[in-house]
Amino acid sequence: MTVMETETTRTQGPAQAATAAPSGVAGTPGVSEGAESVGGTDSADTKADSCASAPTAHPRPSGQDHYTISEVVAFIGLTAHTLRWYERIGLMPHIDRSHTGQRRYRNRDLDWLTFVGKLRLTGMPVADMVRYAELVREGDHTFTERHELLEQTRRDVRTRISELQDTLAVLDYKINFYADARPASERL
Q1: Radius of gyration over alpha carbons of the chain, in Å?
Q2: Among 15, 113, 153, 157, which is most exposed with the fewest C-beta within 10 angstroms?
Q3: What share of the chain is helix, strand, coil (3-state, %, to 5)?
Q4: CB neighbour class for 85 (10 Å; exposed up to 12, middle 13-18, buried from 19)
């Protein structure tokens, strides 16, 4: 089992719905701690932290574990161009190819792409996502650095949430002001 597979498998447990930390952190919604195999080595003891929302049923959970790029586009919602770009910049692990050279994605790749999608939602820069993928490929000795990268991302997300809550309060004030300022005939 690769590092990515281990991370995806471990985080797809029920504990992930218990806390609202960013993806990639144990016990976090949308985090799959058993599928972090960005071209890593196989290790049964390896911790992981890819993503996937709750125990997600894969499109082919008990059958063929190969998907074409068009199937991945339909499942994940990214474009084929984006998938190829992710592979080119090192955000995706090496993708298997068919005998005709067509990409063949696996469930672990879908888990990783789901996790990357969560990282994108946090606003994490692509360079940091690529760095995270590199750290995963390097192995277990990078857990501390991966943890720090995710902690920083969580701090950034919490700061943005606070800013958005302040903005929401201003909008609520203005909406209430205008609602109260309407002529009586419009309030009925």
Answers
A1: 20
A2: 15
A3: 55, 5, 40
A4: middle
| CB-CB neighbours of 134 under 10 Å | 15
Return the SS3 of 49: coil
Q: How far apart are CA 108 and CA 51, in angstroms?
A: 10
Structure tokens at 152: 């920083």
**What is the reported pTM?**
0.66
Which residues does 102 contact at the CB level (< 8 Å), separation at least 6?
68, 69
pLDDT of residue 183: 73
Checking phi first, is residue 24 left (phi over 0); if not, alpha (psi -120 to 50) or beta? Answer: left
Paired tokens of 65: 């574990």
**Count of CA atoms in the C-beta half-sphere (13 A) of 174:** 6
Which residues lie below 8 Å from residue 67, measured CB to CB, with a gap of 6+?
Answer: 59, 60, 75, 104, 105, 106, 109, 110
pLDDT in tens, 125-135: 999 999 999 99
